[in-house]
Amino acid sequence: MGAQLRVYRRRIKSVQSTKKITKAMELIASSRFVKAQQRVEASLPYTQELLRAISAAVSHGNSKGALVSEVENRKRAAVILITSDRGLAGAYSSAVIKEGEGLNALLSEEGVTPEHYLVGRKSVGYYKFRERKIANSWTGFTDQPTYEDAKRIASAVFEAFNTPTAEGGVDEIHLVYTHFVNMAVQQVRVRRILPVEILEVSKAEASEKLDTKVFPLYDFEPSPEAVLEALLPRYVENMIYTALLLAAASEHAARRRAMKSASDNAEELIRTLARQANQARQAEITQEISEIVGGADALASA
Amino acid sequence: MAELNVSVVAVDRSVWVGPAKSIVAKTPEGEIGILPGHEPVLSLLVNGVVRIEPTEGAKVAIAVHGGFVAMDSDNVRILAETAELSSDIDIERAQKALDKARVAGEDSPEALAAVHRAETRLKAAAAVTATGMHS
Predict the structure, then answer these.
(1) Which among A42, A220, A221 is the nearest to B12, CB-wise?
(2) Nearest CB to B68: which of A39, A45, A231?
(3) I need a surface site. Which of A23, A302, B65, B104 has the fewest CB within 10 A?
(4) Nearest beta carbon to residue A221 from set B9, B11, B44
(5) Which residues form a coiled coil (chain A) (predicted)?
(6) Cα dist. B64→A232, B27, B41, B48 in Å?
(7) DSSP A91-138
(8) Which of A35, A46, A229 to mutate to test the interface with B (most CBs of B within 10 A)?
(9) Do B79 and A46 touch (CB under 8 A)?
(10) Which CATH class is domain A27-257?
């Protein structure tokens, strides 16, 4: 076997084993994706009811409180980035980081210092490499987030929000995550969690299912303010939880797609290499034949 | 007869949905009983047991943590951070969790919360066995 042919065969083998790996990852991502999507769906009823209850409490209570109204002089804002722990998911994490950079620039322009709250090893690595100050970070659960994880994140940012600005607290909380639209489309979205954009939220997210126009005259216990006050932390937790779930579904979808195109590319490469290997083999055989014929010719004429 | 449409929803799933005759839950102001025709109410719930008497079948007890109830025109929605049907609660495991939580100390709020959770779970389980709902 000629040297060239051997090189081709070796490359084919290596591409084949790569393809096996990417194919396996594709299958794993698909099955995880289905689970992630089910979790998104299972969390919907709670989100809807919570939004409805909050809208009701806000529309009945006259005082809106610090959680709902904007601050005049914004100094600092918390920016939560939700990225993945692992790579091999195409542009999934880098898209979020890029959007985060845009938000950081926008906030800085307005004279607001962004404080970075990072979820997922990818964003942590990015910020560490650039030696930026990280306010807080969480890793290790991005592919299967639980409500507990969301609660941990929520309590950290909520605490920063409740700290006076002079003592290092933040005036706003922004969230950057990947919204899952469908299998083919995932969009990076930026949302402000606090101060609450109640109207926007109830219109955009809830108008189909809920009838937001008129609420019955609820009897609030203990009082509308107390109910609202108790519900808003829930709202923050729920926002983050929903974002984590959507991001997890997006991550699996992105990984599936990335791995699918990797497998397809490997397949394509194998086909090209096989063709080249066959050509090399054929060239070798032709050469051998012509050598034999040439040799026999030389003997006969001698 | 009018009946209540009840749904009990936890953050990650729907726990119990169905028609019911009455509901008893615990709010910061005391116990609240809800029958069909009750005025609209939106109330916080303290961690405790919610008892539901369905239109058909045995009574249901649910251990609820960090929840609230919203009721209007005979639709009752109970939302909670965690909600567990008493029939899903493993008494032995809950007891063990309670013991463990007690040992973990009562200094930190988390440990206390764990004790509370375990106690509520046991209460919910007991509520069912006491009234002979498991037949």
Answers:
(1) A42
(2) A231
(3) A302
(4) B44
(5) 259-286
(6) 19, 11, 18, 6
(7) THHHHHHHHHHHHHHHHHHTT-EEEEEEESHHHHHHHHHTT--EEEEE
(8) A46
(9) yes
(10) alpha beta
Average pLDDT score over chain B: 80
Reported as a pLDDT band with limits 50, 70 and 90, residue A61 is low
B12 with B62, same domain?
yes
Residue of A nearest to B43 (CA): A221
Q: How far apart are CA A54 and CA A68, in angstroms?
A: 11
Instruction: Let me know whether B59 and B118 are in one domain.
Output: no
Q: Does residue B106 lie within any of the structural domains?
A: yes
Question: Which tens digits make up the pLDDT trace of A251-273?
Answer: 999 999 999 999 999 999 999 99
Helix, strand, or coil here: B58?
coil
User: Residues B92, B80: one domain?
Assistant: no
Q: Which residues of A touch B10 (CB under 8 A)?
A: 46
Provide ipTM, 2 decimals: 0.75
Residue of A nearest to B40 (CA): A218
Q: Of all residues in chain A, what percent carry a pLDDT higher than 70?
A: 89
pLDDT of residue A65: 57
**What are the pLDDT digits (tens) for A161-217?**
888 877 888 888 999 999 998 888 899 999 888 777 655 444 444 444 444 456 777
Q: What is the pTM of this model?
A: 0.82
In degrees and rounded to multiples of 5, residue A210 shows phi and psi of -105, 155
| One-letter amino acid for residue B125 of the chain | A
| A44–B contact, CB cutoff 8 A | no
CB contact under 8 A, A52 and B73: no
**CATH number for the domain including B53?**
2.60.15.10
Q: Are A235 and A201 in contact (CB under 8 A)?
A: no
- The domain of B125 spans 88-130
